[in-house]
Hints:
Layout: H1 2-17, H2 38-41, E1 66-70, E2 80-88, E3 97-102, E4 106-109, E5 115-119, E6 128-135, E7 144-149, E8 158-163, H3 168-184, E9 189-196, H4 204-218, E10 227-234, E11 239-245, H5 269-280
Parallel strand pairs: 9-10
Antiparallel strand pairs: 1-2, 2-5, 3-6, 4-5, 6-7, 8-11, 9-11
Amino acid sequence: MNLTKGALAVVFALLSAAGAQTRVQDDPPPSVERGVNPGAAFANATVVGSFSVRSLPIPTPTSCPHVDVDCPDRVRPGGRLTFVADLSGADPNVTPTFKWKVSVGTITSGQGTSAITVNASEAPGRSVTATVEVIGYERSCAILDSCTTIPGDRATTRKVDEYGNLRYSMEKSRLDVLAIELNNDPMAQGYFICYGGRRTRPGEAGRRCEDAKSYLVSDRGVDPTRVVTIDGGYREVPTVEFWIVPPGTEPPKPTPTIFTTKSKPPTPAHRLGRQRLLALA
């Protein structure tokens, strides 16, 4: 009986020292005197304490973005290749990281970004596979893609891009890729050929070419002497072509589809009423 009371006194002393709060931790329980059953010592003890239960958040399902890798069609001077990853459906609040691997050659620039340059000069004529993994989204999202190319070694004039009417932000992204193409082929020139549409006002195609060149020069640091603009005439819809012209190759020629246009620009709506009155007078 006396041993039991002594053990309880030890327990209550320990509880008082802890501020009468029960703490859950990795420390071993308080010791009792030799020969005393610990179970009996705590049998009549009252534990006073406070506990909090925290619920874990339930993850909400998220949609995963999609990535596509574009392959180059030939080796640039020095055995360089450019691979570009196009990410769609991505959360604008996430800054992704692009982790690249190549089967042949060495990544010389762009690791971590959406476009890389690969030096494949050590393996001429061999196929090159570039694989990208996009990191920064949910772990359940497997965002992977790869592209394989068998580059040729003959430099030729080639069309890099063609597009119609785009929003300014979308056109900027296309021009950014064109700047990379020029940087990867420092001896080549870039040619813009711009076509007006059937309803395009005179001179609008030329102005669009000059605006594209101005962006490459002022925003991307391209030498203005390396960019040539050509007013290509008219097609059914407004069109912009961009060509890479290596040294010693033939520059591209315009290919309009409308050689004479009798269509006039649409008349503003506020002038239609007055013209009809003059026609009836």
